[in-house]
């Protein structure tokens, strides 16, 4: 869980995250065949997180600067707590998204950004980008396995977006 004051880690903003601090950056983009407004709402209300993680709590109904979100992957005593705070929101007609920075207790230190964009040709794209480094002893020890877990989580977010678009179109 997060500490009582929801403390951000030093150098949590991506503008401060340099390779000198051990941060890795990864970015994926995928076209999603679906409704832009519906996908934007799904992303902005933490739908990706709720679709992927077992337990998700947020201090607000949608992504706004300062809203905290806690994901709890795992089962029983093997459950991790991954608290984060929204640090940036993008709401620009054809682009909606947010960035959250990790809080104390999160297995990784850094930021993750989720953006849905409607392009001029009408296609819809989801972009997920993260800047991170291990923050807990077990993610440091896990090394490449922790990076693999993060890649799998990103793939699960993309699948959740595609599933949501499919379900929205058929329902």
TrEMBL record:
Q: Which domain of life is it from?
A: Bacteria
Q: Which SUPFAM superfamilies match?
A: Bet v1-like (SSF55961)
Q: Where is the DUF1990 domain?
A: 19-160
Instruction: Please report the name of this protein according to its UniProt entry.
Output: DUF1990 family protein
Q: What species is this protein from?
A: Flexivirga alba
């Amino acid at each position: 869980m997060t500490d009582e004051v929801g403390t951000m880690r030093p150098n949590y903003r991506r503008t401060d995250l340099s390779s000198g601090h051990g941060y890795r950056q990864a970015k994926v983009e995928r076209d999603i065949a679906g409704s832009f407004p519906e996908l934007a709402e799904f992303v902005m209300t933490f739908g990706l997180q709720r679709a992927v993680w077992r337990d998700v709590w947020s201090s607000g109904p949608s992504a706004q600067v300062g809203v905290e979100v806690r994901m709890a992957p795992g089962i029983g005593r093997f459950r991790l707590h991954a608290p984060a705070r929204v640090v940036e929101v993008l709401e620009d007609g054809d682009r909606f998204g947010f960035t959250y920075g990790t809080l104390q207790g999160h297995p990784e230190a850094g930021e993750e950004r989720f953006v849905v964009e409607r392009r001029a040709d009408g296609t819809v794209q989801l972009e997920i980008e993260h800047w991170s480094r291990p923050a807990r002893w077990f993610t440091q020890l896990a090394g490449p396995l922790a990076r693999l877990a993060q890649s799998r989580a990103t793939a699960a977010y993309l699948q959740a977006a595609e599933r949501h678009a499919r379900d929205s179109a058929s329902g």
